[in-house]
Design goal:
The complex is a heterodimer of chains A (414) and B (330). By secondary structure, chain A is an alpha/beta fold. In chain A, 31% of the residues lie in helices and 17% in strands. The chains are: A alpha/beta (414), B mainly beta (330). At the A-B interface, helix 2 and helix 9 of A face strand 15 of B.
Amino acid sequence: MKRGIATIIAAMLASTLAAAALATPAGAQGASGSAAKSAEVVTHYAYLGKEYREPAPLSLLKPAVIPDEGLAGVRLGTKDNNLAGKFLGLKFVLDETMVPQGGDVVAAAKKLLASGQRLIIADLSATDLLAVADLPQAKDAIILNIRARDDVLRQTQCRLDVFHLIPSDAMLTDALAQYLVWKKWTRWFLVRGKHPADIEYANDIKRSAKLYGAKIVAERAYELQTGARRVDTGYQEIQTQMPMLTRGVPDYDVAFVADETNSFGLYLQYRTTDPRPVVGTDGLEATAWGAAYESYAAQTLHDDFRKLARREITVRDYEGWLAAHLLETAVKHGNASNVDAIREYISSDNLKLAGYKGEGMNFRSWDNQLRQPILLMDQLSLVSISPQPGFLHPKYNTDTLGFDQPQSLCKFSK
Amino acid sequence: MKTVSHNGRHTRVAAMSLLLLMLAAPSAWSAMLFVSNERGNTVTVLDSNTLKTIATIPTGQRPRGIVAGPHGKWVYVCVGDSNRIDVIDVSKLAVTRHLPSGADPELLAVGNDGNRVYIANEDNAQVTVLNAETGKLLAGIPVGSEPEGMRVSPNNQITAATAEGSSLVHFIDNKTLKLVASVLVGTRPRVVTFTPDGRYVWASSEVGGTVSVIDVGTHQVVQTISFAIPGMRAEFIQPVGITMAKDGSEAFVALGPANHVAVVNTKTYKVSDYIIVGQRPWHMALSPDGSKLYTVNGFTNDVTVVDVKSLKPEVSVHVGRLPWGIAVVP
């Protein structure tokens, strides 16, 4: 393994550079026998997040707000990167920016870019993500999306500088659809909220139904004003409301719920008029990660995360960890020492990103979406992992989830 | 070889071989096979001649790494969720003592003098070295994340350890108990083994899909071996277990969810054959005379016996739940 002397990614403050170059960890024992002992290769990257005002989960067992959600995962990833890096002469420096509620994400991004940061882990909404990605200063940057599941970011609003670690909604509904078809539960009762995000997710459910030959026997929109989650005897209202919502529906196998704003989805279970399982944003959920998942050494990630953050890991934490790990993978295995080299490596089919999913993962060339198995989980356990057996693809079976090349509407403008 | 026929073929081969086995005379040698059952919290002991279960030994929580001491007296089992090593007395076929391993031991190695155990603490980024008899702590050596693969060199001077999360193979000087080198290999290295002459270390990279051959003298990767099975997706080829043939001419590499064991020529590094076994073979071991290879198949809860000369799977034998590792005691 050969590296140039102190190949530094992007511009950096002289003081940081001096400190980094001097900092030879006591435990460092040299790397690869001979090479890379002389100088440290320092990689700088930034976390950019915002404190969005979001509805609290309905379950009282889930925290209403997690102030370091996403960021804690990036911190753990950085810790892991440096644990390995000290044996190889590699150092990873994380710059954290959390924009407060009502704050200006674009201004924060400009500041990061002006300081020389070109590797940005974006924990942002789709709107903010696009605003940052479209900054002229961000043209040669790499932006790693760890939050926004919006399909449009992989389709008409795709960007060459944005790589999506988090799966799209379309991947999630396809993952569920495959399982339901495998179970032969193909008559779906679609129950959705009225928020634009609910409507988007409902459209994905319809898309998946069409793709996999399931039938939507009925669709109902429901609005329960998101209110206080703690109310005395609130269950009685719910016990009355949910049967009313689900009465008189043609026979169906599952209630497929689209409730992105946590206003009623949880309440459907055990309260539908007909005894039917609930899937979608509640009940059986498709997700990139869950704290109850433990296969493929995932438990070690959970243990490390719990030690660091003193709470359970969430999807965004996982994606944050994965983003830091992706950058490390490019520097370590791809020998990439600048932004262009990192882009080239992570864009290639040679990338085998290890994310505790039992296979090496890489990005789809047509929309920069990370290929990945999707977990199907209830609150307490893993139920299955999609793609399901029998759903095959000529190249990658994971390309049966979400927008495959023929369906892609993404046109990267250079 | 078509992927679709794997299961059927496996069963047929197994059934036929069972018949042959019943007709065949017992082998000259006899050994005990100790198989750790990760989900069963037990170790299954098989008689190598009859392939019958002699004992099912209860252990602590989540037994994975299992290694026999050199004198055939003790079998060491890492019980990760109990944070200790269970030591099986071979004459009693029972756990008779424990060693304090430190957090979450996954795999261990014992030198051929039997004096020390070298333990990978998966959860703790550390290799713990203990006196095998007294359990006295000799060293805690910080390594990369998720250490797993452990092996002591044939001359007892070096220990190789993988750090799965960091994609590193560490070399530890057994005199000073300090790291002497850390070598980058393919993604998520699981198992290391020395060639019988001690000159090379082979390391399997589960997600990288390769085996790296490292020169023990220079600490350089001199060869990277890839695998390809017709009709099998590349992402299902996940090398884990590596076992060298007794004469060192061939290496066997278990390919996990690809349900095959690759046969690699150790001179040319060419893959000469792929042997179908049970589902998700990870760890393997040879019979004392080197004529049989045992693969531990996690998803089918069995051990496949492979004839080393003909490279044919002979029979699969049921063990406990989610079997992980195997140790052979002559």
